[in-house]
Amino acid sequence: MDRQAPEYIELVAQLRELATLRSCGAVLGWDEQTNLPPNGAEHRANQLSLLAGLSHDRATDPKLGELIEKLSEQVGEGNEDSVEAANVRDAKRAYSRSVKLPRNLVKELSRTATLSQQAWVEARAKKDFAAFQPWLEKVVQLKREEADALGSPTGVKYDALIEDYEPGATAAQIQEVFAPLREELVKLVAGIQASDRKPDVGILERSYPIADQETFGRSAATAIGFDFTSGRLDIAAHPFCSGIGPGDCRLTTRYDEHHFPGAFFGTLHEAGHGIYEQGLNAEQFGLACGEACSLGIHESQSRMWENLVGRSRAFWDHFYPEAQRTFPDAIGDLHIDDFCAAVNNVEPSWIRVEADEVTYNLHIMLRFELEQALLSGDLDVADVPTAWNETFHEFFGMTPTDDSLGCMQDVHWSAGLIGYFPTYALGNMYAAQFFDAAQQELGNLSEMFARGEFAPLKNWLNEKIHSQGRRYDAPKLVQKVTGESLSAAPLLNHLNTKFGMLYGL
Q1: What is the CA radius of gyration of the chain?
Q2: Which of the 8 DSSP states describes residue 228?
Q3: In order of start, what are the domains of the chain with their CATH numbers?
Q4: Model confidence over 39-75: pLDDT tens digits?
Q5: Which helix (H) or strand (E) holds 232?
Q6: What pTM did the predictor assign?
Q7: Binding residues
Q8: What is d(CA 473, CA 468) in angstroms, rounded to the nearest whole number?
Q9: Annotated binding site for Zn(2+): which residue ranges?
Q10: CA-CA to 186 of 20 to 30 Å: which in 5, 167, 194, 325?
Q11: How confident is the model over 75-105, as pLDDT tens digits?
Q12: 235 pairs with which residues across the strands?
């Protein structure tokens, strides 16, 4: 396709205006989580609802549909590698979904999500699920209406929502991938729990002054490649990354003076998302090839930098001296082996975002099961705490002592992000497979990390993944980058090798 064709130029202009309008909502959403006074929630909800309605009007404009259809006929079924063809194909997919959604539903979803998130923050702090329950009931009902409006070839409501995060995936396909992963993880956890090696995690609960944590976290984020001239780091109730647009990517984390891993690895995780956002092709802003491939691919980047890099011994060979200088009272005289063992401790825990590499995926599988049941109507919102606690006990052998450690710990459901959670576990699988491919092409990454050289991996990811945008769907991107289809084998190999050595298995 000729990128200079008048129709294509017009499509680009319209899609960029739509993306710019949506980015205004992204700024307001970021501000809501970081700076909004509690009494401003109602007005912010109205602001975001208005913007959602305006965006929907543009996204469903019949003239845009006619333009896309005309260009689609020119593209045909070929041109798999063409940037322009990919942009048109994705525009057609987005348009066909948007026109199925009533404008009032879009606005109400936006408004409810804003108010629901504010209610969640307060209810979580008070450990009061009953106060949050009416909001979750409304969110779930609206998401059911959205799923019905969108429809799915499988007839499964959940599949209609997964499409927003992992295009083309279905719950059945994800379950098929998760089943063998869960089986192997349960075996590995059992082996670790039977080991007589027990890291001293009390090391991580010593005093780590928050100001020093922020300085150290920013230093590490900068070293791995996050550009603070095009981004920033703030505090929020739940860590997130917001890619506003070219040159503006915003990270958040949360601090606890007596829990070092939370903020540090949370910062690395969000910086991984940010590096992806900053690596997108700015010239393709508003178009498929300037957007992330999928949420699973996005999570692969954050989980890679957090775990495969940030929890590696090589990473700490480089950073540990700086950590000791920054936190002399906590670890000034502590051997690196003891510190690395502590940050890689495997033990069932309450909080997903602070979970170790091995048990993390079980947290995701729990949420995957429950939100499918919520959407189908097999689980009532009022029964969520009980269902959560029972499933958590089945998976981890523990029962949460309150709902802030259980079903209220994540922001996602309050924000209407049902269908998002599976992408975290998919991201772990993608990450391990990409990391293996990078090492095959670049050489010994551990030696590079120990020297403080993170640019080779970052640049490889920029080239192979970030700059491609949504040129290919996730399965095709994995195939092109690694030469193989998605498999749990690289992740399981990584986990068995690393933790087998740490725990003498």
Answers
A1: 22
A2: G
A3: 6-150 (no CATH), 171-503 (1.10.1370.30)
A4: 999 999 999 999 999 999 999 999 999 999 999 988 7
A5: strand 231-235
A6: 0.91
A7: 269, 273, 299
A8: 10
A9: 269, 273, 299
A10: 167
A11: 765 577 889 999 999 999 999 999 999 999 9
A12: 253
